[in-house]
Amino acid sequence: MTLSQRLRDIDWIDVWLWIFRILIIVGVVIGIVRKLFFGAGTAYGVDDWLDFFISGLSQGGLYALIALGYTMVYGVLFMINFAHGEFFMSGGMAATYLVASTLAATGFMNEQPIIYLVLVMVFSVLTSMSVSLLTERIAYRPLRRAPRLVPLITAIGASFFWQYIFRGFFGSAVKAFPVPTILEGRVNVLGLDFLKVRLMVIIVSIVALIALYLFVQKTKTGKSIRAVAEDKDVAALMGIDVDRAIATTFAVGAMMAGIAAVLWGLVFKQVIFSMGFVPGIKAFTAAVLGGIGSIPGAALGGFFLGVIEAVGPPLILEGLGAPGAHQLKDVTAFLLLVLVLIFRPQGIIGERLAEKKA
Amino acid sequence: MNAIDWRRAIRIGLVLGVAVLIASVIGMVQTFDERDMIEDILTLGQLLLFAPAVYAGYSAAGKSEERRVAAPPLLAGLLAGLLTGVPAVLLVGLAGWWTTIRDYFVNVSPQLIDILTFGRGALQGSLMLLAVMAVLGLIGAAIHLIPARVRRPLVNATLITLIFSLFSDVPLNIANQFLPRDIVRRFFPTKGVTQLAAVIVFALSLAIALWWEFSGRTRRQQRMATITAEQRRRNSLIVLAVSAVLLLVLPSILGTFLTNVMTQVGTFILMALGLNIVVGFAGLLDLGYVAFFAVGAYVTALLTSTGDLGLGINFWIAMPIGVLAAVFFGIFLGIPVLRLRGDYLAIVTLGFGEIIRVLVRSDLLKPIIGGAQGILDVGRPSIGPLTLVTPQHYYYLLLAACLLALFVSWRLRDGRAGRQWMAVREDEDVAEAVGINLVGTKLLAFAIGAGFAGLSGAIFGSRVGSVFPNSFELLISINVLAIIIVGGVGSLPGVILGAFVLVGLPELLREFVEFRLLIYGILLIVMMLVRPEGLWPSAVRRREMHADEESPPSVAELEAPRHEATQPMV
Hints:
The structure holds 2 protein chains of 2 kinds. Chain A is mainly alpha-helical. Chain A has 15 helices and 4 strands. A two-stranded antiparallel ribbon of chain A has the order 1-4. Chain A has a two-stranded antiparallel ribbon with strand order 2-3. In chain A, a hairpin with a 2-residue loop joins strand 2 and strand 3 (192-195). The radius of gyration of chain A is 22 Å and the shape is globular. In chain B, strand 3 (382-383) and strand 4 form a beta hairpin. At the A-B interface, helix 2, helix 7, helix 12, helix 14 and helix 15 of A face helix 14, helix 15, helix 21 and helix 23 of B.
């Protein structure tokens, strides 16, 4: 082959993508090296890095909980439920305004902190579930056989609808989420120093994730969900009520979102009607990272994203000398999303299903 | 025997009642109540409260056209109307009993309760509300009893009067241009219309509608049947000439306020035409479209600004550079994402849009593009000695840009590129198999779409005079997407209509800006459920969307694997 012929055979898009990859890798390596060996930016000790890691882990737990809703719905319907962030928001808003603030005002919160947390969580979960079931019934179910982007657009519509309905209900101000005093301060576990809230978030999210996994794998309802995800028509022939299984999927995903909303309130100590959007997109990123459709994948993707987001800016961006690296936290997450979707749409650890379904 | 479906009547009444309740609790009724429609008779809030009762009565009484015994449908309407009022009455009761409800639901204010009870106290007012709702339901049901030929003109005239009084800003501003103020005042108080104006509009539209119903339609049909091809061509030429003249003189008819609204609409028409190529023609759902708008605006602003960050170059040189930058950026982003399909593409572009948004705000780029402070003193274009300053000037600039974009879209759609795009939209694999260069085709769509958005951004920055990160939220992307969906994906007149409906009308109802996105959300859902092809669809899509309604789906279609429905199509 002559040289000119070889040149003509090169796929220029591949070249471009390779340049892109190499640039990213070089940037990351330079950033890390400059940070760790030449002390660029603020100097952090080992404790600081551990702190970053732990807060990333607990943030990741929240992402994982929300990501489950995306991944399960995608698993059965092959649809990005854009409104899932709003299911999360609705639980947090309603529970804070209607239950948490009342119980905090009467002093019940600090007398019975555990019952308080359980009550708030149950209320949040119930709200999220009703919102998600309503959305599914009205905006998604009639469109089962429509082209795929039609439900995506109704999902965007539903997302705006719920945001502004809740804004109308409770107002547009930031509302403080009351945190019981026993959850303030730090605690030492296994030689590691945790913020109590962070530790609780990590534990609750892991327990919830395991419970969900067992539910999907071991119960009859879980089995019907898996069957519907495999093939709706065959599942229907086997006597499974497909609509019911899909509704259950939405309800379970919303349940996780409702739990996450209360934990979110505990960590950030405030709620607002627009709080669902960014966590929603990030949780979707987590779901994609782990290979969308897979439940363990979403969990791992969530923790991975949380840690990258916490450690990445100080480690890589400060190393590259970017000012205000903490502002760029969201960029890290979105950049990761874009890179994964472009270079590895099946997810970092995921199964190879994205190709045929995406 | 015409049996009335009582269960249906109850369901309709309750569903609409809950809708009324929610509209009240989120503060819509109260905010809308401050807006008069017909002076001293009707406010927008009352319309929101009462229209559902009429509609409930109308639909509970059934759709059937034939004559029947009057009593049961009327009763059904009465019941449905009554039920529409029940949730609101429950709210009144709840608010009376639970005095601190306002700490939880901020919009359940004493004023709201006053509106719901006509200011007569809880018990008497509630009974009154129920009675009014029931009577309105009855009226709704009674509409069926009017003969069809009278009913249609009557309903149309009522709707026209309501729309006229809702958007009274348009006739008000036009009248202000030509008539002395005290005459205008007689028809238009500050907001809404006077009773006199309402009566005139109603009478006029009723007369025209009646004439149309009884003789106009048949006459037109006869004329259309006898008209020759040549006459038809001449007629369309006349229409074209008249609309061209109208477009040229429009700013002097409309006045400054409405012209400003028009420039706003024009900005969005330009963007929507660009997104229409990407989404409508090529079928690539792009949710980060605002990024290209931002690139056009920022590049032009940086080049022309006379402030600290700018270079002070002439606008006419800077604008093409801004557009080229947007095109380049479109290609730059397009290359990596083109291999993705459908919803993954949507999410990646959304991610890109968000990255841009965070980046322009960050300290990282602050020395170059000004961070949250933005760029001030953006240069204005000048033609000879005339510098463009007023909305009127920008109206002409935008008109020219929109016509150019329209022309380009129209020619491309019917040309080779357009057919390639549509082939790719329908099925990528087949398109590739018949020899279409997928990458080139998609990149062309991305580049042209980005170019339109860049042009729109360049003009936008200059028109507003400054460029801030706030102007480039994700919302703009959603807004543009909503325009092309509501108008009709892939349809050029639809896109323009969509921009007027979704940008123009809300500008006229500025006081309700907090409910704008709520209404957008509802509109997107309702459109997809009821009329997925849009308000003014292209002929092809209309056929596609309703193909399955004409013939029932075959067994093979029903049992087809779900992956069949994966073509990236809106």
